[in-house]
Amino acid sequence: MFTVTRQQKQFLTYLLTDEDANSSVEVVPERGGILTRWQIRGQNILYLDAERFADPSLSVRGGIPILFPICGNLPDNAFVHAGKTYPLKQHGFARDLPWKVVGQDTDGSASLSIELTSDDSTRQGYPFDFQLVFTYQLQGNTLKIHQRFVNLSDKRMPFSIGFHPYFQVADKTALDFDIPATAYIDQRTKEIHPYTGGFDFSIDEIDHAYTEISRHTAGFSDRSAGRQINLGYDDLFTTLVFWTVKGKDYVCLEPWSGPRNALNTGEQVKYLEPRGTREAIFEIRVSEL
């Protein structure tokens, strides 16, 4: 049985549940459209920093933040378009703005559709008119995020899209990764290194970008928790980022449509023609080892 219910917490929260699978997710539209929690048989799949989440002046660290219209940061937090400079902070504005609920369904899955449209505040940093409609769909141990991007402008619209899932882990040394790449860019030093499949979790921060991936699946196994996390993403997504911080119980494996600064450099940047539409999907599946 699938249900979609509302709970009035600090923020209005939508609970999507698959009762037969004992699986549920929580979505908070007004806090950046974020999916904050995912539980399967009482076990948390995602990490959430509850103190940061409770403070609207801070970006959320946890759940699955939405990155749009950029992924990562820009030099001097500046987007240059048609000879004009616009202020655009790290990861864009979608994760900070309230989204509107535009639909829900319990036929074959528990799903919730949310929408973000351009306004005067978004045009200050991104001079385009757009509509985003994302649908979270829970079925069993699988979460799908369907995306629709619409360019409402009369000019070609560049954009990047990404997701920043924080997976909860208790022992990073018990993780085995499947990342479809042979090299990465260290985003702190800008150096390129070969990737051999492991990480040095003794360092303070790991921030690797895999800009040449060979397939559209990735994931990791967690021997401590006894589960496997598998990611699937369509060809809109061409970069994977792995990020974690020493002493924190999470790892982030993030599909991005392009690398940092793509809107300025043009590297792997995506475009929508005037009045054009594009759809994409990102899927996370959890299974037992």
Automatic annotation (TrEMBL):
GO terms for molecular function: carbohydrate binding; isomerase activity. SUPFAM superfamilies: Galactose mutarotase-like. InterPro entries: Aldose_1/G6P_1-epimerase, Gal_mutarotase_sf_dom, GH-type_carb-bd. Pfam families: Aldose_epim. One of its GO terms (biological process) is carbohydrate metabolic process. This is Aldose epimerase. It comes from Pannus brasiliensis CCIBt3594.
